[in-house]
Amino acid sequence: RLLVSIGSDVAHCDIRSCREADAKAHQVRFRYSQPGGMYSLNLALPHERAILRTLLRFGAKLRGGALRYLKFDPRSPKPSLELDAATGLWTVPTSGPCTFTFNPPLSEAARAAVQERAGAGSEMRVTALSSTGSMAPQLSSHTSSRHSTVCSGMPRHAPWVNSTAAGGMQMGRAPSDAMSRVSTSDGGRGRRAVVEDVSVMEPAVEKFTSRASSSCSSTQAPALEGDWSEVTRLLREARMQVSALRFPLIRGMLMSLVTNEQQLRFIRACSRDIWFNAAQVSTLCEDRPEIATDLACALIPSIRGRPPQLMLLGSSEFERHSVKIAQSVSSSLWFQEGNLTGRYKLDLSEPSDCAVAENCLLVNAWEVEVGRLLGKPDVSQRGNYEMLRNEEHNEVPFTYTRDWALPSHGRFCFDYSSIRRPLSTETAMPEASEITRFLKSGSYSPSAKLKALRAVSIHIYMSAQQFKNVAMCFPAGEDRQDVFCLLHTRVVDPANLLGPMSLYAPAVFSDEDRLTLFRRVGHLHLLNPLHPDHIPYVCRLGIYEERRVVELLVLLTTHEAGGRVLRHAAGVAGVVPASWVGKGVPCDDMTLAVTYETQTLNMGWRQELAKSYCVGTFSLPVA
Questions:
Q1: How many CB atoms lie within 10 A of CB 485?
Q2: What is residue 416's three-state secondary structure?
Q3: What's the pLDDT at 555?
Q4: How far apart are CA 302 and CA 309, in angstroms?
Q5: Are 444 and 193 in contact (CB under 8 A)?
Q6: pLDDT over 90 for what percent of the chain?
Q7: Cys-Cys link to 110, which of 65, 182, 187, 370 (CB 3.0-4.6 A)?
């Protein structure tokens, strides 16, 4: 990053005889793409002083100054930090510990929306005061004192989803056209392998994109929402672009290395932090033809934009090895930042997989920040707002936190469950029904269909019935589960999706499928707050999300006559303790099998609970 910086004065760098750090070396816990997190530095170490200075420079570029987003641990002495006005460099202590958190904003749009809503609320309160002479809150007619007691700490959450239907990866006609050109340039099987994954959907992409754009322009968005165009900008700025002026320096460093191992080590290091263009990657491959295939596998994910990636992949210089390269870069080539929900099994030693992992963590951080700012309910697995679930590194489970440093090696497996949902004003697109026809018409593998479906998913809004028709085009089991993961966030009527029409339809999903989906997507994501009756729930009270399901069922009993939560054990049904209403559901390490039944339905109360326990819009059917 120092070398490719436009303002860098470095003209030559000799890296010969360098090697990778061993396991005993001090780890540099700094991620350029996402510098926020908790730091515990030893300022006696030069590289940790450099981290502190880097964070100060980063903070100085933000609104509010360098120190605004630094929060030092009050239990340890605050270091003396001074900015040299003459040189513009920060002076930091050369000894002692330094513990702090650094939380720069990722979503300026969400912060601005919150401030705007706060200002509008103040104006409304002033107007109310002038007209009534009182600032006392006015409860709605159906709100009782018991309602107020039970719902303390359960705010009404403003609707939020995306601001544009196509606000993620732009996978419209341009990528498809690029693929078509690749496949028709000659009859090689390698290039056909790339195009087959998306050609099944190509005739419908333009309609989906056109409809999504017109839908967004013709509807008024809610007051508070997340701007998904910020995600594209964050991912673009997560790496530094190699300029034409600085590229010869990188090229010279590669040429100076003697062995293939050294050259590949250098290129893989570059692939983690730098954006190249297609011409630069082609030049590096021509300089080292003996390892050109390995260089392409490492650097194609570092080319910004799908069209140049695909055009380089289809060029004649990689004709013989196009299949190998396509398979190697597949995870990043088909990465869809606008719809991440799914299962990821990544080999962090592979540049393509490492890029996907880095992008997932960055989008996760953005969704967490937006969710917190806009008051969305916490539907995470562990009560930490994170989208990541079931995390494992080298088959060892762990809980992801922001100070976890992404390793350079090992198997990183996790499920991603996004809180992105359609706006309440969105409706199902008639064009979405064409997906079923295209899926049935081609003899493509389920894997190819899934990739193509994810590519166009951000341009689609569909009904639960349309989703069911699409799901039935795939074999039962894991493939159909994958369809649910990637499309349930695009369904406009979740109350039907999470009911007997789709999720609980025996012809669509088996009991085993549902158990797997609850683990992959999340219990709160799949909870139907309008129709929870007579559904068997198996909940571990020690797990946040599963305990929250029992909480919602218990709260239902407070406003529905005859409502009760039945506990099933050894074939005998009992009722959960009534004290759970006031004291809360215990966090004990125990598993409950429960169902809910009632004599009366209070749909208004169920909708209120949905705002605090679920994401998405759960609307009552129109008579």
A1: 23
A2: strand
A3: 96
A4: 9
A5: no
A6: 51
A7: 370
* Angle between helix 173-185 and 306-313 (nearest 10): 10
Beta carbons of 49 and 43 less than 8 angstroms apart? yes
502-535 pLDDT, tens digit per residue, is: 999 999 999 999 999 999 999 999 999 999 999 9
Per DSSP, the residues of 71-88 read EE-TTSPPPP-EE-TTT-
Going by the DSSP 8-state scheme, the letter that residue 305 receives in this structure is S
Q: Within a 10 A sphere around the Cβ of 27, how many other Cβ atoms?
A: 11
d(CA 89, CA 91): 7
pLDDT value at position 172? 33
Which pairing describes strands 274-275 and 240-241: parallel, antiparallel, or unpaired?
Answer: parallel
**Which pair of tokens denotes residue 192?**
């056909």
Strand duo 240-241 + 70-72: pairing = unpaired
User: pLDDT tens-digit profile of 157-190?
Assistant: 333 333 333 333 333 333 333 333 333 334 344 4
Distances from the Cα of 140 to the Cαs of 126, 137, 484, in angstroms?
20, 10, 38
**Max Cα–Cα distance, the chain, nearest Å:** 82
Nearest to 396 by CA among 386, 383, 407, 384: 407
Cα dist from 109 to 160, 162, 195, 225, 571, whole Å? 12, 12, 37, 8, 53
In the sheet with 37-42, reading across from the earlier edge strand, the strands are 37-42, 97-102, 70-72
Q: What is the CA radius of gyration of the chain?
A: 27
Strands (E) in 348-491, as ranges, are 388-393, 396-397, 411-416
CB distance 435 to 470 below 8 Å: yes
Taking Cα atoms as reference points, which of 431, 392, 435 lies closest to residue 411? 392
* CB proximity list for 501: less than 8 A, separation 6 or greater: 464, 465, 468
**What would the 3-class secondary structure string for 172-207 be?**
CHHHHHHHHHHHHHCCCHHHHHHHHHHHCCHHHHHH
Share the mean pLDDT of the chain. Answer: 81
| Residue 383 CB partners (closer than 8 Å, separation 6+) | 544, 545
304 phi/psi in degrees, rounded to 5: -80, 120
d(CA 611, CA 608): 5
For the stretch 517-543, what's the b/e string if a residue is b when 16 or more beta carbons lie within 10 angstroms of its beta carbon?
bbebbbbbbbbbbbbbeebebebbbeb
Coil vs helix vs strand at 123: helix
Q: How far is CA 443 from the centre of its chain?
A: 31
Query: Which amino acid, residue 560?
Result: E
Phi, psi dihedral angles at 41 (to 5 degrees): -105, 150
In the chain, DSSP finds a helix count (H) and a strand count (E) of 24, 15
What string of H, E and C letters represents the secondary structure of 212-271?
HHHHHHHCCCCCCCECCHHHHHHHHCCCEECCCCCHHHHHHHHHHCCCHHHHHHHHHHHH
- The residue assigned the tokens 């290039």 is 191
